[in-house]
Model the fold of this input.
Amino acid sequence: MDKQRQELIHFAQSATGLDDHAKLKLILFAAGVKPATFFALRVSPKNLDEKAHLEKHLRACKIRFIAGKPRAYEEIVGIKGTAVRWKITGSWYGYDVFKDAASKDLFLRYLDLVKRQKHEQADSSSGKLYDYPDCCVKRYIQEHDHAFLREHYSHYTYYQRLHDVERAFPLVMHTACSVQCAQSKKMNARYVAAIKKHAPKFWKAFSAMKKHAVDVVCDTESALFQDVFYGITNTNPVFPVKDGHEYTLLTLKPLDKHYYLVSHLTKQNFARGTVFPATITMRYHYADIVLQKPKRVIRDLHHERHFVLP
Done:
């Protein structure tokens, strides 16, 4: 690996505006393991120079890239009474990076297919662009069909499969077709080897197991093709009968200076606002949660956002 690529990987490991998932993607791309990827860089008053430094490194490596326009990003800054308070704390920029002109052309074709609502062709193109296994791309396309989902899953087993493959292959960027997927297993192993070799500092932090004892509150519940958090409630659920629940739990205190929203799959039914003492074990980009007996209920739990009009 040349000096310029090494410096890009060093930047990726140390940049405060890249979260762990963005660091992972950029390192794997810079190491030549991924042919293309997308990542986001967050910019705030604390790291104003990182955007210029990132683009300087990309140009030094002669990497083709497309930088998106700035968008505001929010963070949870506190929980007071029944309100979860959000605040705009900076801007984020999306970067699409490509190993060569052919990869960039394929990306532009993908965007055109999406624009023309040719979704199956778009999904196939994105699978080729990002080097996803054919079996996983095929399964992803099949699962757009509600009848296929009802035939192969229940509400609970659908989300259980997502949790299982995330833990089986924590470094891959796609949803594996199953935990037995041989291609996803090989890809995950290849990614682990590349990160260990080229970014050992990041690997040590990313793969470390971090355990926290903290109270959490039950917030929203997942429903396929619906999302109450984002106001998507006008579609019928894929699984009319629920045999389990995937909840979003919110930590009531910051962990490592940030509030966390984490997924929890259970057969039990929880009311929104229920507060539990919990043990959260974090590794890679997922969390395993053990809940104790509920302590109380926050009635009318809601999220508050304030925007400045231009």
